[in-house]
Design a protein that fits this description.
Shape: globular
Largest sheet: none
Structural class: mainly alpha
Strand content: under 5%
């Protein structure tokens, strides 16, 4: 798809709301996460591309190394358990959204979800090359104008918190 055919717009921050905007014709394409990817497929939408992300690990300076380490140990244990038996965890993609009142997600069965989309890994910094490539791509679209570098850790290696958490 040529870059000049892509039109940027504001879209809701939640995947379910982005799917509703797509189905209503308010946007022509959007990014989605599970279970909304599977729901979109079920109602006739087509996947154009897919990707995985490293996670959304965020901690302020108020989180001490011990707490951060405990959090990362818990995440590592969850990664181990999920990767050992993905099928045992697939129902959570549906259950948590239905409990929040997303009745459209209740149309899904666990069999509608693809285990291959559930990719979980141990916490670690985003590789420097990938972080830089992503930052460069975002800047090429006019985003991150006020950001000089993607992150301090991209040029200096793991942050102190990553080291303390290992």
């Amino acid at each position: 798809m040529p870059r000049e055919t892509v039109k940027l717009c504001s879209a809701p921050s939640l995947s379910g709301l982005r799917l509703k905007a797509l189905l209503a014709g308010d946007v022509e394409a959007t990014t989605l996460t599970e279970p909304h990817i599977s729901l979109a497929e079920k109602v006739g939408c087509r996947i154009v591309c897919s990707s995985f992300y490293h996670g959304t690990e965020v901690a302020s300076d108020r989180v001490d190394g011990e707490t951060y380490g405990a959090f990362n140990r818990a995440v590592r244990e969850a990664v181990k358990r999920i990767n050992a038996n993905k099928s045992a965890y697939m129902h959570y993609f549906i259950d948590c959204h239905v409990q929040r009142g997303e009745t459209d997600v209740a149309l899904l069965k666990v069999s509608d979800l693809r285990e291959s989309r559930l990719v979980v890994t141990d916490p670690s910094p985003i590789p420097a090359e990938e972080l830089q490539r992503t930052a460069d791509w975002l800047k090429s679209w006019g985003m991150l104008e006020k950001t000089g570098t993607p992150a301090v850790s991209s040029t200096r290696g793991p942050t102190l918190r990553h080291i303390a958490a290992e």
